[in-house]
Design brief:
The complex is a heterodimer of chains A (about 170) and B (about 180).
Chain A: E1 5-12, E2 19-22, E3 31-38, E4 47-51, E5 59-66, E6 71-79, E7 82-83, E8 96-102, E9 111-120, E10 125-134, E11 143-147, E12 157-163
Antiparallel strand pairs in A: 1-12, 2-11, 3-8, 3-12, 4-7, 4-11, 5-6, 5-10, 8-9, 9-10
Chain B: H1 2-9, E1 20-27, E2 34-37, E3 46-53, E4 60-64, E5 71-77, E6 82-88, E7 105-112, E8 121-129, E9 137-145, E10 154-158, E11 168-174
Antiparallel strand pairs in B: 1-11, 2-10, 3-7, 3-11, 4-10, 5-6, 5-9, 7-8, 8-9
Classes of the chains: A mainly beta (about 170), B mainly beta (about 180).
Chain lengths: ~170, ~180
């Protein structure tokens, strides 16, 4: 029997890689949470995810970002992945964190996500809050966390949690 | 609590040792625009609502102990603009956008120190809706309940609409 909040799986990269996969995700929970702590090998990669290996243009987002000196809100439509970094790319200098909640991931509606991005780079950086949409009524059974160019460093970690309602 | 009891009685069910417990959940009926949690136990330190809501176009309102929050301050992004404001006696969970029957409006709402009888109550909310178009919004909100009365009931209300049957709202308790 599933618990109210429990870890489903965790991955720590032993060597640099461009993606992390969680597969065969059980439908036993109500929501999913993903905590991803990463650093880039080289600059220039945007970070995000895909569900069920869907590479179609079925993803979109609305984001608000604070850079330390200004605020900005951006959107993307008909993307081929969920984007979590609307205003920048993954940095090489410091660890950065995504926390993503996937609501009603096994349900029959489109899937909406809430993500916070925390990336202070000791003199630059940003904080963002993002709502993402995956226009699919399929249950989420796999999640691929990915860089769209370049690799994450060895030691990057990602943990998948399940949250169950009463 | 149920898990704890069952865990004691049956080797097949793990006892709950979590500091994060499910208290109750509700789904939309298609014929009502109000989801209510009443008689909330006073045995936790904080509460959290996780909601996934669909309805024909309506603003969503939070009520606590039957009343709107005394104050709301918010920051939002529409995809092209950033805005911030505050208002008295306002309980909107998303300030500019309304619900949809196609695109879920979701959020996580934390109700801090809800059982205190000596403190006013602060609530924070992170919510959003994206519709692959200009009709999207992400929100960060803070509400003040200017009362030292413990919180015993919460309502999530779709103004002028009924909650679709795909709507789910879950209430969790966080131990202190």
């Amino acid at each position: 029997m599933a618990a109210t909040y429990e870890k489903i799986a965790t991955t720590t990269l032993g060597s640099a890689a461009s993606s992390i996969n969680f597969t065969s995700i059980s439908s036993a929970y109500t929501d999913l949470r993903i905590v991803w702590v990463f650093q880039a090998v080289s600059a220039g990669s945007n970070a995000g995810l895909r569900f069920n290996s869907d590479t179609g243009n079925n993803y979109s987002y609305t984001a608000i970002t604070g850079t330390g000196s200004t605020t900005v809100s951006q959107r993307g439509t008909s993307n081929n992945q969920c984007y979590f970094m609307a205003n920048s790319t993954a940095a090489t200098s410091q660890l950065q964190i995504f926390q993503t909640d996937v609501f009603s991931y096994a349900g029959s509606t489109y899937k909406t996500l809430l993500t916070t991005y925390s990336g202070d780079l000791n003199g630059s950086g940003e904080v963002s809050s993002i709502v993402n949409l995956w226009r699919s009524t399929s249950a989420v059974t796999s999640v691929t966390l990915l860089f769209d160019a370049g690799n994450m460093t060895a030691g990057t970690t990602a943990t998948l949690y399940g949250i169950l309602k009463a | 609590m149920l898990n704890t009891l069952l865990g004691s009685l049956s080797s097949g069910v793990a006892a709950s040792t979590s500091s994060y417990e499910s208290i109750a959940s509700a789904t939309g009926t298609g014929s009502s625009g109000t989801i209510s949690f009443t008689s909330i136990p006073q045995t936790y330190k904080h509460l959290q609502l996780r909601w996934h809501c669909l309805a024909s176009s309506a603003y969503i309102v939070l009520k606590v102990n039957g009343s709107l929050p005394n104050y709301l301050h918010y920051l939002y992004g529409s995809g092209s603009a950033v805005g911030a404001n505050g208002a008295a006696n306002l309980g909107f969970l998303m300030v500019n956008e309304t619900t949809s029957t196609t695109y879920p409006f979701v959020g996580i709402t934390d109700i801090i120190d809800y059982s205190s009888t000596t403190k006013n109550k602060t609530i924070r909310n992170f919510s959003g809706k994206d519709s692959n178009s200009t009709a999207g919004e992400v929100n960060l909100e803070s509400y003040l309940i200017n009362s030292t009365t413990e919180i015993t009931s919460i309502d999530i209300i779709a103004q002028t609409a009924n909650w679709d049957t795909t709507t789910t709202v879950a209430l969790y308790g966080i131990k202190g």
